Protein 1
Amino acid sequence: MDWPHGMGAVVQLMRETADSRAGYYGLRKELGPLADFGVDYGATQRVVAEVSTATNNFYASNGRTRPGTSYEALENARHRLLSYREAVRKPGANPAYLTSIVKHHDIEVVQADAAKHAPVFFNESELNQLLKERNQLRPLDRLPVITGLPMFAVHGLVQSGHICLAAGAVARFRSAVFHPSEIERLEARLLANAIEQDVDNAKPLLIAIRDTCSRGRNLLPLLRLSLDGDLQYSFHGGSEPLLSRIMVREEILLASIRKISNHSVPVPDKMSRRDVSIYLDVDNDDIIGLVQAGLLKVADLRYGRMVEGKSVIDFAEKYMSTHFIARSFEFATRSVQKNLALLNIKPAAVFQSANRTNGYAWHRRDIDPYLG
């Protein structure tokens, strides 16, 4: 045999007898035993490499793709096509996802024939683009880390359409994911609605809520007003989390809260301690004590890091924290229990905080009459 040029004759001979072999189109169909050369015949690695190179050269010289994708019915396709075997090896691809792509025709897919189990081939450029976008998606619980927004606010903004989750083929089989460009869109919208000049005596939105003794759950409707252009605020540039860059005056905040007092705020099934601290205006160090006192419930018994959302709502409806009362009455935090005792108000629960001092929770029905 005229090596390696005679290899083309061997390849051509194998191709001519392809119809006698079982299967559809593919490497084993076209090349028969030559496809597994070196596996069944015990050839050395060098010989196997030489045969593979010669085979590839033959296909290249004849204007064809490499043997692994040289399917007779598809050789004249306008775009490079990938076999299922090649596609499933790509990062982010798996059998279930590729099957769904075929079912929903998300990208160009070519089937060798009309048989139910006939091989399918994927448009390589379209599949690469789809997988690239899919790999860029981030789980929704990353959004609080990046923006500073508590998770209950994120859920509420998703519900109102201010934050859009990824959908369609790119997000299939992925629950609650977003594209990073969504953060840029959110920031651009806040910047567009902000007033151009700085607001005198303005404070970061979350601090203003606490200093005015407003409930932490009001953060969500205030954010919605900001994104809709119905709240007067300034928006600072910089690398700080998005939430800390929204600046508002206290009197504007209070006027807006009076308009949204009846708005409902969705709460996730599980809340982080930071979320609970913001929503209930409680000290982060008191949360464990509130759980031990039975006023809050742990959502994951194994790790105890998350708090059950329903228990947070129940607490907000029935109780108040010492920190909230201290700010409302302008008491020192340590003097709250003593001053309320003068009003014959007893704590609803006493617990040990993280710093080993007594912490208190108070019945809302006892405090509300004094708040006016």
Protein 2
Amino acid sequence: MTRANRNDSSCAMAAPCSSGSAQCAVELFSNSENQSAEQIARLVISGFGAGTKHVIYACIAINKAVLRFRNNRDTVDIFIAELVKGFILPASQAHLGLSIPKLSMLGSIGDHGDVLLRDGIREYLVPYPSTLYEVVLLYKRLFRNVDALAKCIALIHERDGELTADAIAREAKPKKHNTPQPTFSSTITGQPEGQPFGVCGNDFDLLVATPSLSDIRRLSDVYANSAALAECLQIHERIAAKAIAFVAVSVKDFPTIAHVLLPLCGFGRVSRIVLASTPTHPDVSDVDAIILAERGHDNPVLLPGDLWQQRAAPVDILTLAARIAPNASNKLHIFAVESSPGWHSLVGEQTWAERPSLR
């Protein structure tokens, strides 16, 4: 079946439409937000019996329905029961309610429906939830870069002739250093022109993190899923075997950085702690500090001898990092407030593949 045939198949099991498949899907699900749980479930079932766009719109409807009904257990049970009848969800897991793994997977597809329906992406997709979900995971691995995702998908299709879940999962795995890797340009803020980014690029040998108070709170929270932070902050997969990290935080946030953020980024221990400004009080809890960590280095990194001689203003962490690691070839700034020339900058929420959930 050709790419066009798969995506523009007739609206089987759906209400008649006046135009093509894309418009048909839009018309079919346009009023789902005002319908009952049973009606939405039946729409979803009919969508899974049609083409790729219908499956994506069905997942969007699932995501919206879960958000709408999540505080009403009886309505949730009705919605899930209908999806079980339509063989969308497994009957053996119905008792799990909103925690059904497949329901979470379909909801994630729906949450990223706008990306999957983009020109340059949807043309390659197939109507299989497992494959669509792998595309979503690849998108997150690419730090939510739509252009890089489109190029990766086109490459896989050109190479394999068809998009499959296994092929996408293989592409999403970090590449070994001795493996030739295709270069994809990226629109990530502040990325040096012509340098690769995403799963198809080089690993970073210099990391700077400037987390905000809200980022610190997220890192400090206790999550029901112990792997939640690792899944939502996928920086460690892109850090080189030999790398240096600098983190700018208040002294009181040191435990969170040392025991949570740095391990998540692939660094096992703290090497140095430097006060970013001269303290004026014995209590240094709220004094800004720069935490230094290393991996793969035989000898500890030395700090500049004149570091304490230039204290009229607080130490600029990017300047300090570049000075201590002048030979770094691939530099990443996470939790950035703005882009910085010469750095791959992930500004604000771009750092998170997705927001971690406390559930």
Protein 3
Amino acid sequence: MSNAIENNLGTWSAHVQNEGKTPQIIVNGRFPTNGHKPGYHLVKNDPQGINPEELLLTLMFGNLVDPKGDVYFTARYSEVITTSEQYKTVLVMDPDGRSLAQMKVEQEMSVGR
């Protein structure tokens, strides 16, 4: 079962990797464009929103994401987090505030829990 919420532009996932001493959240996206390649990357919004359990990210140059596009690009974001339960969902927007994707955060099971 996918952790993506319907109406995402492209394929997105978010999970917590908990292999070392500190957990990390990792967000991956694959999204359609018309072939423009300006250097897509995800940045954490500052300030974050009113819901502390939702990580807000902006896909830089995300305004070039086109649901009818046939050239796909990828972007990745990772951050060390305080606890593996810090974020429940992730919202990805373009610089103009258009929602590109929203997903639930998957928890990876670690050995010895």
